[in-house]
């Protein structure tokens, strides 16, 4: 049975929490200050520490130093003086969550419900995870390079906490797989994981999709609809392409992140939702803030724990490891035993893969289809781009005094020319969504028509 240590200088609070937590199937111990807490930790190592932030002889965060490294302990901080700074500091230190006084008992029970009831199970999971990692697998991710091992270390630290994660990386690097890995290595792994592409939903519908709507709230709303926040309650919500979310909705998202409350479209009734956010962007978030694409206050709220995904060209032999994994899957699906020729593997390592893992996966599937015999050679599906480590550069001269809008226009057309007019590839190189590229081209076309 898991053991909870309750540290609070208010006797009534300690007693009430001990009773509630015992009813949830935990054994408990109590302490009124850090000194007593240290004694209790020595007597019985806790699985969970529920501690007030402000104590007579220090702060609850001081207890992190008393916990034995390597043994998983969930620390939940309680504070009567909530602030974004204190919450962020606590989560970065490794706290699983924090509660504000007066304590919301439903939220406390939801947090406790995520705590595994078996310490042995935790140890077994950790051992298996380490074994898989030696073979280049970590959660849903695959890669054995130094860049990916460092990335795994960061996920390993942040996944068990409640910290909001911001994934930053080029298109095709596997941000959704990284988000799923964060979820599956967290205490929320038995709860829903939902992914939403903020750039793929119509601006007129995105609020309804995010928060839901009531029947009759607008034309076509024939029934009540639960949005992503409601459906992912207790789990993780992955917001991909966060910089493509309309600014007016970013304000509402910020409020949900700060309060845990939202309203369906067509009602004034607030709904409480316990959701962990993992956001992602293929743009530089600070540039998005400067361009007005991302609210600065929302950026700081999302940027509690930023994670940078390395592009495939910086991952060494991972391209071969990934390609073999994709080929193994295709062989299993089709009952074949195709293999890569040695020169094919050499080509895979030499290619720069501007589209990253997504481009590699598509290429392996194409080569698999085109290869008639059991051996897949480079002649089966020639590379569409040169195999140099860096794509050819096009130099654009921007004179002093040129407007940002005109510079933006020249950059887009130059990139389109370099990508042979393939808009999807151009959008990936530019770090914008395909929808945004189409909108810009429509604007330029309308402007040219007016000038004629």
How would you characterize the overall build of this protein?
It is a single chain. The protein is built from 18 helices and 18 strands. The chain is of the alpha/beta class and 452 residues long. The protein has four domains: 114 residues, Response regulator (Rossmann fold), CATH 3.40.50; 187 residues, P-loop containing nucleotide triphosphate hydrolases (Rossmann fold, 3-Layer(aba) Sandwich), CATH 3.40.50; 63 residues, Helicase, Ruva Protein, domain 3, CATH 1.10.8; 48 residues, Orthogonal Bundle (Arc Repressor Mutant, subunit A). The strands form six sheets. A five-stranded parallel beta sheet has the order 2-1-3-6-7, sandwiched between helices. A five-stranded parallel beta sheet has the order 11-12-15-10-16. α16 packs across α17. The longest helix is centred in the C-terminal third of the chain and has 18 residues.
Most strands sheet: 5 strands, parallel
Could you state the CATH homologous superfamily of the largest domain?
Answer: P-loop containing nucleotide triphosphate hydrolases
Query: What's the tally of helices?
Result: 18
Rg value: 26 Å
Approximate shape: globular
Spans with pLDDT under 50 lasting ≥5 residues?
119-125, 385-392
- Number of domains as seen in the coordinates: 4
Strand content: 5-15%
Strand order of the largest sheet: 2-1-3-6-7
Class by SSE composition:
alpha/beta
| The CATH class of the largest domain | Alpha Beta
Please identify, by name, the CATH architecture of the largest domain. 3-Layer(aba) Sandwich
Number of distinct beta strands: 18
CATH fold call of the largest domain: Rossmann fold
Q: What share of residues is helical? A: 40-55%
Whole-number average pLDDT?
A: 83
* Spatial gap, N to C terminus: 78 Å
């Amino acid at each position: 049975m898991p053991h909870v240590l309750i540290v609070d200088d208010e006797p009534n609070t300690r007693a009430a929490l001990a009773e509630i937590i015992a009813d949830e199937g935990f054994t408990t111990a109590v302490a009124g200050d850090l000194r007593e807490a240290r004694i209790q930790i020595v007597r019985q190592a806790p699985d969970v520490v529920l501690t007030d932030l402000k104590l007579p002889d220090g702060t609850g965060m001081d207890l992190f130093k008393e916990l034995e490294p390597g043994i998983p302990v969930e620390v939940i901080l309680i504070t009567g003086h909530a602030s974004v700074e204190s919450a962020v500091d606590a989560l970065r230190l490794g706290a699983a969550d924090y509660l504000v006084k007066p304590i919301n008992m439903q939220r406390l029970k939801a947090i406790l419900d995520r705590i595994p009831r078996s310490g042995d199970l935790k140890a077994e999971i950790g051992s298996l995870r380490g074994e898989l990692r030696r073979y280049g697998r970590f959660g849903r991710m695959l890669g054995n390079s130094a860049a990916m091992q460092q990335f795994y270390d960061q996920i390993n630290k942040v996944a068990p906490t409640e910290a909001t994660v911001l994934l930053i990386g080029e298109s095709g690097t596997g941000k959704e797989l990284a988000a799923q890995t964060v979820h599956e290595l967290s205490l929320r792994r038995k709860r829903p994981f939902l992914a939403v592409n903020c750039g793929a939903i119509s601006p007129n519908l995105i609020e309804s999709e995010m928060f839901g709507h009531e029947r009759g709230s607008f034309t076509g709303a024939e029934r009540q609809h639960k949005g992503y926040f409601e459906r992912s309650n207790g789990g993780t919500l992955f917001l991909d392409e966060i910089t493509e979310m309309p600014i007016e909705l970013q304000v509402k998202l910020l409020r949900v992140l700060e309060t845990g409350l939202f309203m369906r479209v067509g009602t004034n009734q607030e709904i409480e939702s316990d959701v962990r956010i993992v956001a992602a962007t293929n743009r530089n978030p600070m540039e998005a803030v400067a361009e007005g694409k991302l609210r600065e206050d929302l950026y700081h709220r999302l940027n509690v724990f930023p994670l940078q995904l390395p592009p495939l060209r910086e991952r060494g032999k991972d391209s071969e490891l990934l390609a073999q994994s994709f080929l193994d899957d295709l062989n299993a699906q089709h009952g074949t035993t195709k293999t890569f020729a040695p020169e094919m593997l050499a080509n895979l390592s030499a290619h720069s893969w501007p589209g990253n893992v997504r481009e590699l996966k598509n290429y392996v599937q194409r080569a698999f289809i085109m290869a008639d015999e059991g051996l897949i050679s480079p002649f089966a599906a020639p590379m569409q781009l040169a195999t140099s480590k860096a794509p050819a550069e096009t130099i654009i001269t921007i004179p002093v005094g040129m407007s940002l809008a005109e510079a933006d226009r020249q950059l887009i057309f130059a990139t389109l020319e370099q990508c042979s007019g393939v808009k999807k590839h151009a959008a990936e190189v530019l770090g914008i969504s395909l929808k945004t590229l189409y909108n810009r081209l429509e604007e330029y076309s309308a402007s040219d028509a007016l000038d004629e």
